[in-house]
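Anyone else keep sequences and structure tokens together like this?

Example one:
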Amino acid sequence: MSRSSITARHRRVTSAEGTTTAVSRRVRVTAVAAATALSLGALGVWATSAGAAAAQVPVFPDNIVVFPDRDFVSVEGYEGYAGQVATLEVFRTGIGIVGSANATVAAGGVAFEVNHPGGVCWGEGTGLNVTPDIIPGDEVTLIIGNVPLGTTTVQDIHASDSVLQANGTTLVVAGRIAGLDPAQMEQRIVEPALVDTAIGKRDIRATIDGFAGPNGGYTSTLTVSGETFTATYLFDDPAVAAIAAAAGGERAMGWQVVDAAANRQGLTIAEFGEAGGPGFGGCPNGPLQSGPPAPTNIAAARVPLSASISVNWDPAVAIPGTQPITGYRVWAIDTTSNGGEQVEIGRRISNPLSTGTTITGLDPLRDYTIEVVSVSSVGETFPAASPQVVEDILDPIITASPAGGSYPLAQKVTLTANEPGVDIWYTTDGTDPIDEILSESTLTALPYTGAIDIAADTTLKFAGFDPSGNASVTSSEAYVITNRPTAAKTDILSATPGLNSVDLTWAAADPGAPGLEIVSYEVNVYDSSSGNAPPVVTVPFLGAGTSGTVTGLTGNQEYWFTVAGINNVNAAPGPESSRVSAIAQGPVVANAGPNQANVPRNTTVQLNGSGSTTGATVTYQWDQLTSDGLQVMQAGNANKVTIANPLAASTSFLLPNYNFAMTSGPLLFQLAVTDSATPETKYARVTITPRNDVVTVASARWKAGDFRVTGTGAINGAVITVRWITSAGVPRSATTTVVAGAWDLRLRNGAAPAAPGPAQIFVDSSQGGTFGPFNVVR
């Protein structure tokens, strides 16, 4: 049969609503189910549980201050991370991450701000391009290096507009407080004009314990009843009361923790009258103004000179907090312009889980572009996604899982295609499904709509048609349901070349049924990747071990390997694994030994090349390489070590203690093995990773004649070096030792740094690991 005959026989009928009829209707059931699973899986991208990873409330001098009415967050402190990129995430229970942004931590008090002039926009560097509508209960977490450092939970507080009472001197502000200790809130009114009155400050405030202006001019009280608070201000001067009443900007402040020094940590500041959404130009819209994202993995295909274009996609996933996606709009645009007008033909699809459609009625002689948008109550994706229309002349590939073989129990077999929108058909009577579809007799091939039950010996044949009408080859899998099953299919994990040999490891095979066991494995060796070529040799490996060496190979030649298990009730091997290739080494072998990790510093490290070629004409050369592996490390590099005998097959070096400005990462070495009789040189590399101390600074304080720094270290006996720069720009340092997981450096009198004392310190451990900069309190 010709391709055009197959296409004509199988063409789908598509209505204006994008639903399918005839033979394809039953097949789309599977597509919808798959789309549902994909949509839920994609949602996980946004729904990462910051709540599960949330850190403790920030500790002074660090803090995360949330202004929910403005969707604005100020991150304070964290100066020990200055220069590093941090991520701020807003997590909402039951939804996931509703807002995030990346920013570089700055020194000087405010680390960074999000959604505030001078700061960064929500979505900066994270791809979640929406300004979150921050609400009570949201968790705002700072993350650096995948480690959550602090979390503020947004408090349920709110202040209303102030009301001046009839007596002219009493001002009342009512508001909401829920789930918060009244002792951990404060109500304020901010008005710069109050500075020039008897109050002498730019704000007035009320607390549960009562408050009096430090310069006089007013007193205040705050009472709580249920979930309502009332702040009452009594002014000495009616004119001052009128200024406060006209101020606007009433605030309700709540905090999660107050420390011994009265620092308010985990702070929420609700501001009456402030608007949410983008804090400055160029930032993304809020969730109620954000159009939906387009579907992903969009593919548009057209058979040359056909009157239709098939379009397939993965369903779009709404950004958390935004309006749900209700469907899609897909249209083809004639690339030819007639008086400034272009013809459009399209489909509107009302199913948000739809995975594709076919646009028909096109002119076979004209070219078209495709545009696809998602639709929600807010609007449509902007700009529209425009996939390239490709000529679809490739046949789809259909695979079955599990593969054919013998099984002790009935199986459920699933059929999948390598491209979207493929209609799959199958038979269980040995006939070819494509021949059955094209037959003029009774149709016996069945449309695939879900897992196929195989309860007896069955030969399953299957094939499919993609949306352009291309037909796959007909594939066949034979299933045997027996009480003497073969072992299940396994996989080769590694293939390591040796001299005229290859070392293989593989995953243990399932013996095929409970109570059975693997008694041996069989490795087939091929000299071609072709699936039709027979093995050049089959190598048995007795026992249940999962490794073996295939010898007698030709050096510098590529081979392909499979493995199959054999159990104790059926001498036939199970299905072969997928093929893995390797090139057996020739006469010269370079083997630098296994990588070494967690190596203590100030110890001797062995470089073992004993697995390499030996002989009177063979020479060796060990070199230390730069971390990128591109060149030999030169003298003067802080990380260079001295190899004891670089011309020996096996040698050693002393891994030195860490000293600034070394790096604490892995060291890379290369062994070159040369046989002058061949002549041939082979190379091998080995990575030596030092054990790195985890060192921290707990405090750093300076006053005239007394300088003290304390912290922790993970390796007892490690020498800690504290470094700083004097006000004259001169580097200085001092050392101490880790004892019982802690260290304490104290310099007094003449040994202490001179005034004004260091501003910052850096800390290094002799066992690797650094910390800093850390600000010194002085």
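And example two:
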Amino acid sequence: MRISVVPTARARLRGRALAGVAAAAILASGAVGSFAQAPDEPSLFGLATSEEAPDGRMLVEADSLVYDIDTETISAVGGVVIYYGSYTLTAGRVDVDRRTERVAASGGVTIVDPAGNVIRGQALDLTDDLADGVIEALELVTEERIAFTATRATRRGGDVTEFEEGVYLPCVDCDGVPGRKPVWQISARKIVHRQGERTITFEDARFEFLGVPIAWVPVLTQPDPTVRRKSGFLVPEPSWSNSRGVGIAVPYFWVLAPNMDVTFAPTVYSRQGFLADVEFRHRLVQGAYSIRLAGLRQNSPEEFDGGSGDRKYRGSVSTEGRFVINERWNWGWNIAAATDRAFFDNYDREEGGDDIVNDVFLTGVDGRNRFDAHLYGFFVTQEDSTLAGAPSQDLDLQEKQPYVHPVIDHQVYAGQPVAGGELSFTTNVTSLSRTNRDIYEFDADGDGIYGRPDGEDVRLRGAAGTYTRASVDMLWRRRFTDSLGQVFTPFAYVRGDLMFSAPNDAGAVGLADDRFAARAMPAVGLEYAYPVMVEGSLGTGVVEPVAQLILRPSEREVGNFPNEDAQSLVFDATTLFDYDKFSGFDRVEGGGRLNLGLRYSGRLVNGITVSGLVGQSVHLFGENSFSEDTAYQTGEDSGLDGDVSDYVASLSVDTARGLLFNGAARFDQDDASPNRVEGQMVGVAGRLTGMLTYAWIRRQPDLGLEDDRSEVQAAASLQLADHWRLFGATRYDIENDNFVRQAVGVAYDDEAFSASLAYSEDKTRATGEPIDRTVFFRLGFRTLGETGGSADIME
């Protein structure tokens, strides 16, 4: 007997029989686990109304549904669409045989899972418990557009699926172009997915690039898509240099536990031997930490002549961690050290650079309020100069570094207005020690080459000894706008400091002997602005004259205490209206001051936007903090050391056509000649993207800079063709007619593959060694990872 439900039929069907079709295809393709919790319903293919359907039922749409009682088969025929939870299956025909417990689908089977993966097959024939079966012409396309195909997939034992003539594609419709193929793929005679082991094994696997097999392995096993972390070898990393020779690193990733792993990255160098490198990582409930150790016994230490690398045993240790205390607080550390300064650079360690900042920190954030505490230690990776008669600033670099124990910053904003305005408190505590003083010598070798008496001119950069300071800065300000649009901002602040200083050889560096002291700096002020809208045939804009008056006493204790955090002083348009123009807490600006400026921002009718500022600062009364003579000479040649400052200006232009310009300048207050000029242009024109930066600074003899400084930096990238680009960068010292750094390279980038080759030169070394010439290369394969290396080319 046959029971037919004629077009178009809609019913909710009890049981797992048709659900098995969708589940089997997904399991066979490797996207396992989605149906592990499928409802355990009997295999009776019954009908139910929507009101009777519990969770786990499905909706079947077809031209007809046929139930043959005699043969115990159920068929959905013509335009079959099955909705099962968040899964959708379409086919020309689906048959369920109750006696053989098999499910068959044919006529272009397509399955879409909740993650957006699409599975296609010509035909399916599976048991309804998913244990055994066959899928013909299988294709899986993931949500990330990664594809996997096979001529035939066979599932057996409910655990193992074998794919015949399988091909792995890192992308389909690559770069968003329909039909575009990736430049590489992996094909195999057979691919075996073991669901229980969660592994995929490629047998007779070939890596093909541009359709040409370039690598072959008899057997390759890797984790299946459900595994996020799996022990195994990573991509090898080659390298080459004159000192190390040819090197090859073969990393191995070892999963110790779900939250713990180790990476071994042993490297063999043809000239230096075996470098052991191991990194341990551990993730806990409240955070994570890692520890990395590296070391070797060098075969040829003499290859590193001229530095500290010519020793037999060398190595390093680095560790970092971060832990959450609660929703507001966290703490952690970043620490690295080596047996010698040159190790990180000589062996291309990622911890390298001119110096390493070792830091233990505690941070708290609550809205706008913030707390930061740090312990700092600095490990210098730059070598001392080996040049004869080298100045003091290039020697004993490590011994001149301070130990900071600690520096604490705390900023708090009042939750409610105070006298109608905003009240904030800023606190800083700094304590540090230094073994050797850091002196910048103007005439280091005493031959008068700087045009000064032999060896007499020095500038203190860091005093030896111990220095501790605690500072509190309370600021109040309120903004008023009257009926004419004038803006008045009265403000008041008071700064208080407690200080203790115990410098070694205090008199020799111009500081006071051991002593405690207190310092206070109260101030009141008013800022006035009157923005005026202007309109014309060229566009609209806002012109805003600004005046800022600050009244306060003179600075106390000038030059008696170390200045560690306020040596950087750049007077320009961005600092014109700062209440205190010193960059840190060790110095505090005193005396009455009037800051004047004119702002403009506007938009022209052609879409160009322009903004700028021009201004000047006037010292009204009291001692000018920037003209005070101290061992650090912080304010000299700053443009603020006179009663009337230099002029400062800035200009920003956006053409809205791919070209942006930003510039700033400081002009002498006597003759308006430039003392400092900086500018940058960034532009895009067709296939060309470029950046040009220019800087010119007039000589500052009081700071030991006898010559003008002028340089230009440029970088560009040219798209040669689809996916190909040429790039380069340079830094040119105009005054000395010398290219300081330069690099050029070529790169290929598409969705599945990227590669680059670059050459660079660096002439900034101070050790007398040859110029750094390095070749870099990188290869990146989507989903597989990337590899790369470098080769040093020395003169």
